Amino acid sequence: MNNYIVLNGIKSTTIKGLLIQSLPPITKPMKRTSIEEIDGRDGDVITEIGYAAYDKEISIGLYGDYDVDEVISYFDSEGQVIFSNEPDKYYNYAIYQQIDFERLIRFRTATVTMHVQPFKYSAVEKSLSQNQLIQVRDTAAEKNEITLASENGIISISGTAKYDTEMYIPLREVNLDAGSYTFIASASGQGADSSRIRLIKNTPADINTFGGTYMTLNGYDNVSISDSFTTESVFNYIYLYIPVGTVTDYILTVRLLNDVFDEAVIYNIGNTMSRPTMIIHGSGTINLNLNGEQIMVIELGDEEHITVDAEELEAYKNGVLKNRLITGNIENLTLKPGKNILTWSGSITELYMERYSRWI
Hints:
The protein is mainly beta. 4% of the residues lie in helices and 56% in strands.
């Protein structure tokens, strides 16, 4: 298999005339230490202070009808890199050293030195959603000149309804234990405010519908409906109704949440402690505990959601810093390898984890 790299989502094989001739070996980063000699004591005192960033070198070449300006532009970058000898991991990198492009043109070869941070992350691990009970199956359908497609949980609707149109969006079977739940839908784009949806078992009869009725999308804000069950209930489809003549071009998002939600289990499948990014939706005062120890208090109030980045030691909402809402040390949001249990008191409706696995 030919070598390749991926810089910020762009594969080297798409760059005209570029060859990746060799890749760096897989190595463990060097530990940073502080060494102190103490009078009257044999030896010295060594304190470990983390892992050091280091350099990875790749050899590149040119072939055929290459475009050297495109190659230069490709390596004038920083961000995330994937090497084909570790296709499921990415590193954070920057290129600081000069690349001899004159040599590349004359001899068709050159060396690129990438300065990488010590940790690597999963390139395939998705954002971990807690308290999201719906998983939409990938599907494609067309009816009455309306096209429906769902991929990776994103549902898109387009076309003009020639007749009143009913469509079914398949779900991975949703099994709800006895309890209270809330179904939430939102849509952005044209025609959403004329469409109606139901979460159903097999047919759109009221008796088979979550909440017993339709929800009409408004195209701007979330719409929601709640329901309670005394026995296990099963749902299989999102049922979509579009009236004749409706011009549609919108994205539909659906969620189903457990109204009693006070624990999340996160597995760090890496081999070292990770500092994840956590997105919390909720309200009021939230006391957060990790593996049995309180780590912070979040005064979320009516902010609705907050992002806590344990690697950058920052909290923000829509790019605006919100560190003042947190009491405690964000640095304590660290996940050990293996199973981690997050618990809390207060109102959290949804919780997402990103970059929760990490390797050295």
